[in-house]
Amino acid sequence: MRAAEPPCRLILLAPLSGWSTPLDEVPDPVFAARMLGGGLAVDPTGSTLHAPCDGEIIALAASSHAVTLRSDAGAEILMHIGIDTVGLAGQGFDAHVSMGQKVVAGQRLITFDLDLIARRAKSLVTPILVMEGCGFTLVRSFENCEIAVGDVLMEIASSGEAAKGSNRETPDSGNQGSQIHKGEVRRLRVALEHGIHARPAARIVGALKTLAGEVSLVSQDGIANARSTVALMKLGVRKGDEVEVRAAGRDAHVAVSVVAAFLAGTHEDGGGSGEVRRASAAPNAGQPPVQISVESAAPPALVQATKTRAAVSARAGAALQGVIASRGVAVGQAVRLAAREIEVTRLGAGAAHETLRLDRARAEVRSRLAAARTSAAGAAREIVEAHLELLDDPELTDGALALVADGASAAYAWRQAIRAGVEGLRTLGDPRMAERVDDLLDLERQVLLALNGDTGASVAKLPPEAILLAEELLPSQLVALDAGRLAGICLAGGGPTSHVAILAGAMGIPALVALGPALRDISDGMPLLLDADAGMLHVDPGADCLAAARRQLELRAARLTAEREAAREDCHTADGRRIEVFANIGSLAEAQAAARNGAEGCGLLRTEFLFLERETAPSEAEQHAEYQRLAEALAGKPLTIRTLDIGGDKPIAYLPMPAEENPALGLRGVRTSLWRPDLLRQQLRAILGVQPYGQCRVLLPMITDVAEIRSVRAMIEEARGQIGRREQIEVGVMIETPASALMAESIAGEADFFSIGTNDLTQYTLAMDRGHPELAARLDALHPAVLRLIARTAESAQARKRRIAVCGGLASEPVAAPILIGLGVHELSAVPSVIPPLKALIRGLTMKDCIRIARQALQQDSAEAVRKLAVGLADRQSAPVSLGG
Ligand code: PEP
Ligand code: MG
Hints:
single chain, 34 strands, binds magnesium ion, alpha/beta, globular, binds phosphoenolpyruvate, 8-stranded mixed sheet
C-alpha cells in the first residue's frame, strides 16, 4: 500500500474581525474579477489587521493600507484595507511591521482608523487574497458569516494539490481499477466491531451523498468505490485492517473525514447516543451495563439433557446447542416456516419493457422501505436504511440493466445481479460477510415479490407463543410476522451478527442461530423451552420443567414491572439522601423512552444527534421546534440541552472543519461553537425560546477555562435581549477535560451546575483515544485517576454549593453508582433503559456504604481493582433471580 503524501495545505486565520463576504461583492472590478488572485473579503468591525499565518512581509504599501506576507511554504497573501484607500496617502493607517520582517500568525500588522476610512474611502471592505502565480490557490473559505480575529477563514493548497482535488473523473462503479487522484488521503485502522458490513457501508454511502467528488477505499485486497455499498462490503474489510481512504474533488477533505469517522467506529451500532461501550477485558464485556437486580451472571442449565450440538436428534428431552443471537428465555410451541423459492423466467419481453418493470418494482420496494423507515427506530431503522441503499447500489442496478439490455427478464436480471454480489461476498470466506448475503437475498426477494404483484401487506398468521423454526430468516420475513405472538426464533443456519439477529434483539425476541440440521426433526406444535441466555433449545423437556421455567419468567417479569412502576417515584437512598436519576437522550423516541422508564428529567440532550444526517444546518426555527417537542415529551421535567458538540470524533457534513492533525485535541465542543459564533447564537436563541421558561438548562461541552464560559454567557445575554426573554437560564458546564476538573473551583464561580462527562474525561486523563479498538478494554472510567478528578470536582461543587451530575457512560453502569454517590454526586443521567434497575439499586444503598466504597476506590491502584470492589458490593446488594432456581 502506498504511503500518504503530505498535502501542502495551509489554514489562514481571520486577520480582522467583521463579516466575511465573497469577492464578487467587493466594489472594485480588479478584486471582484479575481485579477490579483482568489480569496474573500472582510467587512471589518475591528481596527487592527493581524497576520493570517506565519511568514515574512514581502510588500508593505508606503501608505500602509496594504501588506503582503509570504508563508514559509511560499503562499503569498495580500491584505488590502478598504477600497481606494491608497488615496488617503497613509492617513489613518499605522504599520507595526516593516519589509522583510518575520511575523507569526495573529501578530498585529497594521492598525487603522475605522471612522476616518468609513467617511473618506469608497468602502471599508478588505480583500484577503491568495496572490495569482504564487503556486497556491483557494480550497475553501468561510463566507457570509461573522468572524473574529483568529477564526479559521480559508484553506489554501499548493496548486498541484488543489488541482488534484478539483480534478473529476468518471466514477468507476466497480471495485478494481478505479483511478482516483489523491486529492486527500488518510490511512487508518478499521475499528468497526464487525468490519465493513452492510450498515456501516450503507451509512458511508448515505453520508457521502451530499458531498461532491470521487471517494474510494483501498484495502490490501483491492479498491472500492465508496459510493457503492456492495463494492464496500466486497472488500471484506475486518476490524483492525489497515485501509486508505482517498477522495478527490471539491469536498475531498470533508469526505475523507466523514468516512474515517465511520471507520473509526464513531457511529457504530447502537452508539447513536455515544455511550461508552466497554470491551473484552472488562468484567461486563460485550454485555449491556451490569443489571444488578435482574440478571444472574450465568444462568445454570434449566434441565438435565444431552448438550451435544452435532448429530442430535430432536426427540423429547433433547437439547440443541446454538449460538446466541438475542438473549432471553421463551416457553412455547414449535412453528415451522417453510422456505419458498420464487420462480423466474430467463427471457424478457424486450429491453424497454423489462427496464420499466424493474424500475417500477424497485420504486415500489423503495416506497415500502421508506414508509417502514419512518416508523422504525434504532437498529431496525438502520437495517431499513441499508436496504434502501442497496436498492440503488450502482453495482447491482448497472449489472441488472446490462442483462436486461441483453434480453433477460427483469426478474432474472435482478436475481443474477444479486447473486453475483452474493458470490463476491461468499468468496471472502468471512462468516460475518457471508451473513450480509442475507441482506442481498432479502432485497432480491422483495423486488421479485413486487415484480409478481405482491403488495407485501399480508402479515403471516401465528399461533400464540410461537417459537419459529427455520433454516434461514430474512429481515423482511421477520417484520412480516405477528410480533405479538412470536415468542422466540430458532434458525438452523445464520449468524449472531446478521440483520435478523439484530432485529430480534431490537424487538426483544429471544433468538438462537446455527442450531444445525437437527432442528429439522422438530415437528410443528412440539413444546419448546428456548433458553437464549444459555444458548440452548430444549425440546419437549417435560411438564414440570416447562412449568418451573414459566414461574421463573413470571417472577422476572414481575420484578421488572415492579422496578418500572417504582421508577416513577423520586429516588432516595435507604437513609434518605435524594439522588436524581435523569436520562441521556438524542431523539424524540429516546425522550419518550426516558419518560416511560421514570426519568426525572433529561441530564444530557446531545443536540448534534438531532441534526446529524442533514445536508444543511438546521434553521433556528427548526431547532426551536425540536427542543420544544422534547420539552413537551418530558412533561415539564428539566431538560438539559447541551450546545453542539461537534468536531473531533463527531464531524458533520454541513460544517466543514479545517484539516487537523489531532482532531480530538482540536476544534471540539465549545471551541467549535466559539469558532462559528453565528451557529451558537442561533442555537442559544432556539433554546431560550422554549416554553415554559425554567424547564431548559444550557450545558456547555469541552470547557477548559472560565473565559469560554464568560464568552458564552455574554452571548446568552445578547440572545435573551434579542428574543425579549427576561428570565435567566441555568448554565452548566461539562467536566470532561482534566483542566476543567482541576479548575472546578474557579469554574464553579461561573457555572450554575456541573455535569461530568466520563467518556471524554477518561479519554483525556488516560491519554487513550475513546475509539481505539486496542485500548478499549483499558479505557475504564473507574480508573482511580479519573475517580480522583471526579472527587476533586465534587469537593469544589460542594464548597460553592453547586449541583453535580454525571452524564458520561459511567452513570449508566449501576455497578458504579455507589462510588459516584459516595464521591458526592447528586444526579446520575443514564440511558433510559437502565433507569428502573438503577433506581432500585440506589434505594438499597446507604450513604455510609457509598462513602466507604468511594474512599476505598480512591485508594486502589488500578481500574480492575476498583471494579472488583464495585462488583463485590453489587453482588452483596442484589439477590438475582435465577431461571435455574
Ligand atoms: C462524555 O464525554 O462523557 C459525554 C457525555 O459526552 P459525549 O459522550 O457526547 O462526548
Ligand atoms: Mg464528551
